[in-house]
Hints:
single chain, mainly alpha, 9 helices, globular, disordered C terminus
Amino acid sequence: xxxxxxxxxxxxxxxxxxxxxxxxxxxxxxxxxxxxxxxxxxxxxxxxxxxxxxxxxxxxxxxxxxxxxxxxxxxxxxxxxxxxxxxxxxxxxxxxxxxxxxxxxxxxxxxxxxxxxxxxxxxxxxxxxxxxxxxxxxxxxxxxxxxxxxxxxxx
Length: 155
């Protein structure tokens, strides 16, 4: 299953954008997939503020989990995570134009009017699903380039 199909399946199962990204990787490094869904539940919709896109914040969580597998030293983990987050942000922004939910959707969904307009235009299906697929593609590419990455996901 490619990343876009995976994203569509996640949305069809009721996940938000952050949960969809996190769900692909969580069990690999952190245990129960349910814990990942719980941890990322509040990050959809730009953290409900139309701020950083949920697919982006989900990717940041994944990169932090990956970094945590690379060292026992918290300072080294923070350094690795910071570099990876910066790289992901640049790649995603270049591919998608922004990392901010309201910019990507064209509506400020933190307001009732903006949310209603985004729903009316079916933006969550038209925009969010493809963005999750893009975030997963960027993560796959980045992590496969890492020297100690355990290999491509079997999903």
